[in-house]
Amino acid sequence: MEQVQLNTTKTPMSSNFKNADLIKGVVLPISVLVVISIIFSVLNENFLTTINLMNILRQLSVLMLVALAGTLVIMIGSIDLSVGSNVTLSGIVAAYFVTQYGALAGVLAGLMVGVCVGLFNGVVFTKLKLPSFIVTLGMLSSLSGIANVLSDGKAVLYNSLTFDYLARGELIPGIPNIFLWAVVVLAIIIFICSKTVFGRNMYAVGGGEKVAILSGIKVDRLKIGVFMISGLLCGLAGVLLCSRIGAGTPRMGDPFLLDSIAAIVIGGTALSGGIGGAHRTIVGVLLITVLSSGMNITGVHPFVQEIVKGLVVIAAVATTIDRSKFDLTK
Prior knowledge:
By secondary structure, the chain is mainly α. Helix content is 74%, strand content 1%. The chain has helices at residues 12-43, 50-75, 83-101, 103-127, 132-151, 161-168, 177-195, 197-207, 209-214, 219-245, 255-267, 278-297, 302-320, and strands at residues 156-157, 247-248. The protein has a two-stranded antiparallel sheet. α2 runs antiparallel to α10 (219-245) and α3 (83-101) runs antiparallel to α4 (103-127). The termini are far apart. The model is unreliable at 1-19 (pLDDT under 50).
C-alpha cells in the first residue's frame, strides 16, 4: 500500500497567518499599553510615581487570578460568568472562618468554596448538557444571593495580622505579597498549559471537541477539571482580596467579571476556544489595570470608565474572534 506523506513544510500563507496572530495577540496590545501609559503620564505627573505603580501591582494581582480562571474555561470553548460572585462568596466565607477559627482555616475555607463552585458548574454543564453560559449565569445570581444572606448585606470584619500578611505583607521588600501570589500562580498555569498533557488537551477540546473525542480525550472529565481549577483560582482571589481590604464585603468581586473578560480577549484568547492562553492574558490584565488606574488618577468619571471598558471589550472581541468557527452569527 502506498504511504501518504504529510507535507509539514511551512508555506508563506501559514507564516502570514502566524504573523497576523502574533500582531493581534501580542504586538497590538503591548503597543496600546505603551501609548496609553505615555498619555496618562503626560496628563498627570503622579501616574508614574512609585506609589501609583505599587497600587497598579496590587490592583492587577486579583484581576490576574480571576482572568486566569476565566482563560482556562474560555480555552475549552466555554465561559464562566460566575467568577466575580465566586470571589465574593469565597472572601466572605474566608472572613467568617478567620474570625472563628483562625487564618489557616479562613484560607482553606475560601479555597474550598471556590473549588466546590467550580465542581458544581462543571458537573451541571457536562452531565445535564446545559450551555456553560446558562449554568454560570444562574450561579452568578445564586452565589451573590448566598453571599448577601451570609453577610446580611454587611461587611464581615476580622482581626488577624497573620491573615493580613497574606496580601499586605512584603516577603520581598518593596513588593506586596499579593503580587507574588499572582506571579507564582501565573507561572504554574503557564506550565500546565504549555508543558502538560492536560494543557494540550484543553487546546484540543477548544479547537474542536468532536475531533478531541475521536482522539480519545475524556472531554467531560477534562471540562470538570478545568472548572474546578477555575474555581480554585477564584477562591484564592477571594481570600487575597479579603486580606487586602481587611473584610469580606458583598459584591466585592462583581467588578472583576467584565474586567477579566476584557483582559482575556485583549490578550488574544479567542472566545471561540483553542487559541491563546495564560501567557497572553497577562498583557490584557496589564492593559486593563493601567487603563483603569490612568482614568482614576486623571479624574475620569466612573460612569465614563464603564463606557470605555465596554467599548474595549467589543473592540477586542472583534479583532480576536475566529469567525470561521461559526456558520451563523447569533
